[in-house]
Amino acid sequence: MYKVYLLVSLKDRKSSYVGLTIKDIGDRLKEHNDGLSRYTKVLRPWKLIYFENFYCKMCADKREQFLKSGLGYRFRKLIMNSYNKLR
Question: Which of 8, 46, 50, 58 has its CA 20 to 30 A from that of 83?
Answer without folding.
Answer: 58
